[in-house]
Design the sequence.
């Protein structure tokens, strides 16, 4: 029987709200916070987060499929590589845990830290340097060559491997790949990444469950809090400035990456873990403002409009002076 733990439910509520606000998947937020805040072992944290995310993304994936916001061709070709990549990543974690024991936990935390760092950089670049891509968005991508299909399979394998190893990537990395490589509209990016992510997460969850690396009680408690949290965050999304939200998210992800690297054995002072992300987030926001200001068209001076009747009065005065002379 599932024992309700209020502190874990509240934790799930807070993380769910962040997921609803940002659209970034739980792996980028839930896994590091479970390790850092709740003290869960890295392997169990990854496995539990994958099982938890599989449930949450399934509902979203079904909804997007019904709405027709899934590009099935992109999902299929990426999936050909991502499915085996995800399964191999999950199997590798179980095998390495058995072979290396406790020492593997530091290796896994380093992998999670690296994945988080990649996601943080991707969010920063997407927010501050790729804003112009919206002008080239399209509803569907047509695969016309074998090279395009092969590249999609290889890309999917790499992204699936990262997901299977760390639980990070279904929201941020796959979504950015669809934005940058295939230039899909935001609706298609969201629908396709959620749909494909749900399938990959179930595959990974099966691998982690087979190795007894999923805490189902913890996953249940997190779901109780995160489901209303995601709804609450999605309701507040339109009321929070998007640029500020991205800057905050990048700071959180960078801080999580540095904290995970510190737990993995990299000696980092608290000032660096907290100060470096804040400084980078502030710098990114300032650069974005400078670029936005420079890109605005200059105001065009408009000549003053003469008062109604002005020309007529002027002409009348000229004529009167001529008659007087």
Sequence:
């Amino acid at each position: 029987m599932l024992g309700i733990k209020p502190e874990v439910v509240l934790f799930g509520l807070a993380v769910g709200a962040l997921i609803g606000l940002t659209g970034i998947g739980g792996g980028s937020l839930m896994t590091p916070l479970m390790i850092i805040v709740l003290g869960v072992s890295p392997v169990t944290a990854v496995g539990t987060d994958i099982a938890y995310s599989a449930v949450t993304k399934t509902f979203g994936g079904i909804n997007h499929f019904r709405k027709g916001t899934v590009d099935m061709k992109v999902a299929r070709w990426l999936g050909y590589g991502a499915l085996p990549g995800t399964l191999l990543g999950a199997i590798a974690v179980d095998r390495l845990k058995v072979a290396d024991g406790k020492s593997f936990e530091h290796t896994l935390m380093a992998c999670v830290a690296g994945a988080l760092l990649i996601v943080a950089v991707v969010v920063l670049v997407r927010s501050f340097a790729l804003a112009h891509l919206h002008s080239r968005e399209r509803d569907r991508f047509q695969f016309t060559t074998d090279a395009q299909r092969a590249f999609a399979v290889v890309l999917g394998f790499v992204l699936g491997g990262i997901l299977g190893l760390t639980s990070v990537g279904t929201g941020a990395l796959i979504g950015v790949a669809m934005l940058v490589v295939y230039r899909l509209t935001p609706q298609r990016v969201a629908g396709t990444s959620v749909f494909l992510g749900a399938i990959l997460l179930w595959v990974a969850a099966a691998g982690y469950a087979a190795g007894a690396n999923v805490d189902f009680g913890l996953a249940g408690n997190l779901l109780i809090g995160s489901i209303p949290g995601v709804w609450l965050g999605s309701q507040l999304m339109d009321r929070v400035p998007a640029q500020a939200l991205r800057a905050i998210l990048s700071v959180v992800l960078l801080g999580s990456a540095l904290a995970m690297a510190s737990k993995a054995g990299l000696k980092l002072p608290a000032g660096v873990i907290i100060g470096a992300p804040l400084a980078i987030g502030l710098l990114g926001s300032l650069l974005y403002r400078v670029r936005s200001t420079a890109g605005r068209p200059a105001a065009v001076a408009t000549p003053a409009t003469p008062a109604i009747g002005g020309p007529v009065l002027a002409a009348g005065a000229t004529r009167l002076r001529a008659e007087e002379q």
